[in-house]
Write a structure and sequence with these properties.
Radius of gyration: 25 Å
Largest sheet: 8 strands, antiparallel
Number of strands: 29
CATH topology of the largest domain: Rossmann fold
Helix content: 25-40%
Distance between the termini: 35 Å
Shape: globular
Bound molecules: guanosine-5',3'-tetraphosphate
Oligomer: single chain
CATH architecture of the largest domain: 3-Layer(aba) Sandwich
Strand content: 25-35%
CATH superfamily of the largest domain: P-loop containing nucleotide triphosphate hydrolases
Length: 533
């Protein structure tokens, strides 16, 4: 393999990550502050303002505005200290967790953001589980340190016990009379003493930096804070875990940072360490073995499809994460699933949703490819036509409903809409017999309730098929693999609904977990799966 120095350099300096958190932990605020320190915006407040502005751009996004939530993701690219950073934004609302999971597949590391009073919350736990399964490096940021929160040692102990990951504080908070005044960076042995500006954190915080052995440190911090810091450092060094890069890369040890996204305190020390510690794009598994990012042949996979981003053009954009090689406009690739050639004539890059055309892109980057309905989530685009990345796992829906067209003559539109929503990954559709789309009533599944509302809204406004839902109480699906006659017998004997997903895989629906376990333990002539096999 010939080594292209420009490609090599681009890979070395790429950092692609996503933030995982429970709503309200401060993800929007932190994102904004990272963009501020990355020079991508000049005054914080822009992301939130843009969030409001962009609601005007699409009518189904009106729903987001009414609900005050963000249901779409975007990709933000910025530079810091010679690094090119791609921050993959994840939807904030828990009902859209499936979308969030897919974004994590496209990231190389995750930043777990915690509220200093609440620690690990429900949604953090779910997203953490996905990162852990993928053995992704996970960085922890404890936010809102400007307010008195849980004792840092106690908080980290809780994180370790709850999530089963070791914590290694890289920065440590410094308090003076309960006020958060700075952080100590244990790797650099530097103290950052911040001053609050008078613009509520809209611009970078003033900071003084001193080495741990600087004789004037006591004066800068005050004797009480200084004494406490010396005590804390000794305690961490003696009683804490030691730092291990391999454990960090395997996702079993999390580097921890303390910060206040609101006041900007500790944000830059985090960013500075993060770019050095977080991994660049690594080799990814495919059907032809590991694909090295430095392989000059382009490859990537679709992890998200978004339709109708701009209501004036009924376009679909496929978000492609580049895994190897370099992208340049005009590149010819194979759409591996269909074997058809595809010319990537134009591609878009995103900065907080402002689209711009790009000249080149590298592993770790995300490009938006215009699509006329051929691409699906998980599809591989590659110069080598025998290479396919392992599929993006589906996540089991937790809500099911029959979907009925209000006007029976609109059945064609309903089917077209459902097909599109399925390809985008916005819905999972099931049928009662095989993949027969003419079966009287398709059944839709969603990870969360809100996803149904978006489905109905889009079916009506984009496909002209107003529908209503009839809820099904059973909500625990188990995919089943075995002889067809046996599967049908189990469904009959156990009185369960037998469905087929869009690919024709059979599944049974259960009312409650207890009843499900009871059946699974007894019916061992088939194998059961949480998600589609
Ligand atoms: P999210 O995207 O994770 O849901 O959180 P977001 O950034 O919207 O922040 C949620 C709330 O927490 C906001 O307050 C925000 O100002 C506050 N917050 C974020 N970071 C910090 C921090 O470091 N310290 C403190 N004290 N608060 C923080 P809000 O009152 O809901 O909204 P707003 O009126 O301030 O926008």
């Amino acid at each position: 393999m010939t080594i292209d120095p420009a490609l090599h350099d681009a890979i070395r300096t790429r950092r692609t990550f996503a933030i995982i958190s429970h709503p309200d932990a401060g993800k929007t605020t932190l994102t904004e502050k990272l963009l501020l320190y990355g020079g991508a915006i000049h005054l914080a407040g822009t992301v939130k303002a843009r969030r409001q502005q962009r609601h005007a751009t699409s009518d189904w996004m009106q729903m987001e505005q009414e609900r005050g939530i963000s249901v779409t993701s975007s990709v933000m690219q910025f530079e810091y200290d010679g690094y090119q950073i791609n921050l993959l934004d994840t939807p904030g609302h828990e009902d859209f967790s499936e979308d969030t999971y897919r974004v994590l597949i496209a990231a190389d590391s995750a930043v777990m953001l915690l509220d200093n009073r609440k620690g690990v919350e429900e949604r953090t736990r779910q997203l953490f589980a996905v990162c852990k399964r993928r053995r992704m490096p996970i960085f922890t940021v404890v936010n809102k340190c400007d307010r008195v929160g849980e004792d840092p040692l106690k908080l980290l102990g809780d994180v370790e016990a709850d999530l089963g990951i070791d914590c290694y504080p890289i920065t440590w908070p410094i308090h003076s009379n309960s006020a958060f005044i700075g952080v100590y960076d244990r790797r650099r042995k530097l103290i950052y003493r911040f001053e609050r500006g008078d613009d509520h954190g809209a611009s970078e915080a003033d900071v003084q930096v001193k080495a741990l052995d600087d004789p004037s440190l006591g004066d800068m911090l005050g004797s009480e804070a200084h004494g406490q810091l010396v005590h804390d450092i000794a305690l961490l060094d003696e009683a804490g875990h030691s730092f291990s890069e391999s454990a960090m890369l395997a996702g079993t040890l999390s580097p921890v940072f303390f910060a206040s996204a609101l006041t900007n305190f500790g944000v830059e020390p985090f960013l500075r360490e993060f770019v050095e510690l977080a991994p660049p794009p690594m080799a990814r598994e495919s059907t032809s073995g590991l694909v090295n990012p430095a392989d000059p042949n382009f490859s990537g996979f679709v992890f998200k499809i978004q339709a109708n981003m701009d209501p004036r053009h009924r376009d679909r954009i496929a978000f492609v994460r580049i895994c190897s090689g370099k992208f340049a406009p005009g590149l010819s690739v194979t759409h591996v699933r269909t074997g058809k050639p595809l010319r990537l004539s134009s591609a878009q890059q995103f900065l907080a949703r402002e689209r711009s055309m790009i000249e080149e892109a590298f592993p770790g980057d995300v490009i938006g490819v215009m699509d006329r309905g051929t691409l699906r989530i998980g599809d591989t685009l590659a110069v080598d036509d025998d290479l396919e990345f392992s599929g993006i796992p589906r996540f089991a829906p937790e809500h099911f409903a029959r979907i009925v067209a209000a006007d029976p003559l609109k059945r064609k539109q309903l089917d077209a809409g459902l097909r599109q929503l399925t390809e985008e990954g916005a819905a999972q559709v099931f049928y009662t017999s095989g993949t027969d789309t003419l079966s009287p009533t398709p059944i839709v599944g969603a990870v969360g309730q809100l996803q149904f509302d978006v489905m109905l809204h889009r079916l009506e406004h984009e496909y002209g098929a107003p529908c209503k839902l009839e809820k099904i109480t059973a909500r625990y699906p188990r995919w089943v693999v075995g002889a067809q006659a046996e599967i049908e017998r189990i469904a009959r004997d156990r009185g369960r609904m037998l469905l087929y997903d869009a690919k024709g895989h059979p599944l049974l629906l259960f009312e409650d977990q207890w009843g499900m376990r009871w059946v699974l333990e007894r019916e061992t002539s088939v194998t059961w799966h949480d998600v589609a096999p």
